[in-house]
Amino acid sequence: MTAIELDGVTKRFEDVTAVSDLSLTVEEGEVFGFLGPNGAGKSTTINVLLDFVRPTEGSVTVLGHDAREESVAVRERTGVLPEGFGVYDRLTGRAHVEFAIDSKEVDADPDDVLERVGLADAADRKAGGYSKGMRQRLALAMALVGDPDLLVLDEPSSGLDPAGAKEMREIVLSEAERGTTVFFSSHILEQVEAVCDRVGILRGGELVAVDSIEGLREATDADATLRVSVGDPVADEVLAEIRDLAGVRSVDRDGDDALRVACDSDAKTAVVTELEERGITVTDFTTEEASLEDLFLAYTEDDSDVAVDDSDGAENDRSEAAESERSDAADAEEAGGTDDPTEAGTADEEDGGDDADSEASAEDTEVAR
């Protein structure tokens, strides 16, 4: 079953096209990483999925529901960890989770939820005294309430120390084992590589790749690094000969007894053969595959066209009214007003189109955990 389907989605904010003809599918139970530079369109896409903003063209289906016509049904089955989550300073961590439980009308123990994210000892502290990492854990706890069928995580590791990031990965993998679909947007590529089944990469307003990480390695010319251990010093003229081989991009010494060669997979044998023919004793060699960071840079910095595995689209981004909502929340607190701790939208990304997107988002945003 398809958990998320965007078909020809376009979103315009006055003269800014944030999403252009974006088509994408995410299968049920899949952990899908959504990557792109700041402003590539990740937050706008998430807001369209959650009906925080309405697409100008195209259709969006989430968990079998039309995201626009049946947005309440979608949100009832979705847990959201937004970037830029704001807490209510005067409410305790437990009170935040209790609010999420009441809002979703589910039977859950707030202490169990807080224990799961490592906040049990801070349950009765006011959230205003929480660190950034603790606030991020609290946001995740609220997203997990009710065992949602879909988790939307926007920069979930933001503010977390290494131990917290590890716990985040474990929770994501645990949810995936339970059958939850996870839509995971992050700039921390190691986190994405550790948990995601497939990734989509956006560049310059376009979805340039959708595939597994291994599939991306095969489809791009991102360098693999061949480390060759040698028994003899390698002269400069030999290095020059290696650099001239087809498929070799760079050659560097790694101490006196090894070389690091960035090359295509097909060039590895030629490198070793050339060294041996030049009288160099090769004692060992290993290959380091291109990391997700290497792949990301290859897709986002390369000007050449790249085929998309099963979808294509375009996107230049902007979103959100999170900051204004936090300001509203602060005003309400000063006036002794609402105790709703979940009025925080998905945060803006950091480049062109901010004003247009933010204004439009403010009109459409209705946040519900």
TrEMBL record:
The keyword Nucleotide-binding applies. It holds the Pfam family ABC_tran. Keywords: ATP-binding, Nucleotide-binding, Transport. PROSITE patterns: ABC_TRANSPORTER_1, ABC_TRANSPORTER_2. Residues 315-329 have a biased composition (Basic and acidic residues). Coiled coil: none annotated. Residues 4-229 form the ABC transporter domain. The keyword NAD does not apply. Residues 303-369 are annotated as: Disordered. One of its GO terms (molecular function) is ATP binding. It comes from the Archaea. Residues 303-314, 330-369 have a biased composition (Acidic residues). SUPFAM superfamilies: P-loop containing nucleoside triphosphate hydrolases (SSF52540). Belongs to the ABC transporter superfamily. This is ATP-binding cassette domain-containing protein. It comes from Halobellus rarus.
